[in-house]
Specification:
This protein has one domain. With 95 residues, the protein is mostly helical. It is built from two helices and no strands. The chain is elongated.
């Protein structure tokens, strides 16, 4: 009965070597985490910079506008690689 919990294997094979998809998965996730840290750290530093450091606050606020976009964009690619590698065990609509 437990075998019914795992879907059947997809008939289409992985469109490349498995090591390449693992490498791209790790690289894109690291890029995603880099931009998430820029957003989180920049927000905290801008909030606690103080009133005397308006240039620093302005820099972090302006950096957040593009860093949020990059964090979202680079967050999609790791999900796609997980779907290719572990499609039987991972359902992306649940996120």
């Amino acid at each position: 009965m437990a075998t019914n919990l795992i879907p059947a294997l997809d008939p289409a094979p992985i469109p490349g070597p498995v090591w390449l998809f693992h490498l791209l998965w790790v690289v894109t996730f690291l890029l995603h985490m880099l931009f998430v840290n820029v957003v989180l750290g920049g927000s905290i530093l801008a909030a606690f910079a103080g009133n005397g450091r308006r240039e620093l606050q302005s820099f972090f606020v302006n950096a957040n506008s593009w860093a949020i976009s990059f964090a979202i964009t680079f967050g999609i690619a790791p999900l796609l690689f997980v779907q290719v590698l572990y499609g039987r065990f991972f359902y992306t609509a649940t996120i």
